[in-house]
Amino acid sequence: MRLLLDTHVLLWWREGSRKLGGRARTAIEAEAATVHVSAASAWELAIKSRLGKLKIREPLHEWLPAAIESSGFLSLSITLEHTVLVANLPDHHGDPFDRMLIAQARHDGLTIVTSGTAFEAYDVRLLDARA
Fold first, then answer.
1. Domains along the sequence of the chain with CATH
2. Interior CA angle at 115 toward 110 and 119, to 5°?
3. What is the rounded CA–CA span in Å between residue 25 and residue 49?
4. How far apart are CA 115 and CA 54, in angstroms?
5. Pseudo-torsion of CA 22, 28, 31, 33, nearest 10°?
6. What is the pLDDT of residues 52-107, one digit of tens each?
7. Which of 35, 37, 88, 102 shows the smallest number of beta carbons within 10 Å?
């Protein structure tokens, strides 16, 4: 399974939070899984950290790459193709980070692991992070 973690799911994973359900955790840990973390999530974390809306003990530029590498995840860059797809998405949801994840998942054939209900309005595969 090819997965794309929503930003909050990445945080839950890193913290070992019980908010991340057993089915989702099993899918992420599966030997056959390829798990991606989008540059959009890094951007969202950077902004929220800078605004004081998110407290991370270590500097983000150290924490995030180490978290991705130690978990065996892959970084997913934002491409021109991804950005163009965002323009064609219906206006069901205005969050720019989520819209980028949707575009990336659709373009790259990924399943988004999220607890966000806004994704349900789009034609994209989802895995409930709380399940």
1. 2-128 (3.40.50.1010)
2. 55
3. 25
4. 18
5. 130
6. 998 888 888 899 999 999 999 999 999 999 999 999 999 888 899 999 999 999 99
7. 88
Q: Which contacts qualify for 39-44: CB closer than 8 Å, 24 or more apart?
A: 39/75, 39/76, 39/77, 39/78, 40/7, 40/78, 40/96, 40/97, 40/100, 40/101, 40/104, 41/5, 41/6, 41/7, 41/10, 41/97, 41/101, 43/97, 44/7, 44/97
**Token digits of residue 9:** 């799911």
- Of 107, 105, 108, residue with least CA distance to 127: 105
* Helix 7-15 and helix 60-71, axial crossing angle in degrees, nearest 10: 80
Query: What is the greatest pairwise CA distance in the chain?
Result: 38
Instruction: Give percent of the chain with pLDDT exceeding 70.
Output: 100
In this structure, what DSSP letter does residue 30 have? -
Give the tokens for residue 23: 């089915």
